Amino acid sequence: MITFETISSPEKAEELRVLRNECSEWMTKDTSKISKRRQRKFFKQKILTGKIEGFLLYDNGKPAAYGLVVWDDEGRAWSSTGVKTSSRGRGHGRNVTIEVVNRARAYGVPTWAEVRCDNAGQQRICRSVGYVVVDTFERDGLTIDLMRCDKLDPGYL
Ligand SMILES: CC(C)(COP(=O)(O)OP(=O)(O)OC[C@H]1O[C@@H](n2cnc3c(N)ncnc32)[C@H](O)[C@@H]1OP(=O)(O)O)[C@@H](O)C(=O)NCCC(=O)NCCS
Description:
Blueprint: E1 2-6, H1 10-23, H2 36-47, E2 52-59, E3 62-71, E4 77-83, H3 92-105, E5 111-116, H4 120-129, E6 132-139, E7 142-149
Parallel strand pairs: 4-5
Antiparallel strand pairs: 1-2, 2-3, 3-4, 5-7, 6-7
Helix pairs in contact: 1-2, 3-4
The protein binds coenzyme A.
């Protein structure tokens, strides 16, 4: 059974940390590994303040994937997602990507994402659910698509 739970406790933030560290190499900004101490600070400064809204996807009670809605100073909602290595290829990546879009849409705003051009899985997911590329740029030797999702593809509503 698949369930989604909002990250609302230090314990869930720790589960997020473990998942996120498995995915770090594919992040477009911070690819470092996050320590337990840094995650406790993240929980207080970002989650409790509402600057970042996060959730975990559980597959039969076990954390398998995560999604974050990251609010910037201009009020834009940015998506960050990842799937546990051993849980990939089961649709969780698409599920959490859709959940982030739905959570941003609940505030009436589109979702923004940066996706490495060589990230074949996330490229496929984003284009299929309704993201469009609005810019392509280079950062630290990587080519990155800036994408925006105004509304989900009707197949995923
Ligand atoms: C990218 C990632 C989220 C995909 O997660 P996943 O759970 O394996 O993806 P899904 O099972 O939902 O697959 C969705 C589609 O993408 C395709 N796909 C997934 N990984 C792929 C890959 N490495 N290469 C090509 N296609 C891939 C699947 O075949 C599937 O295709 P479909 O349209 O025919 O259904 C996962 O590999 C991951 O967490 N990577 C590291 C973190 C990351 O890249 N996060 C996004 C940062 S922008």
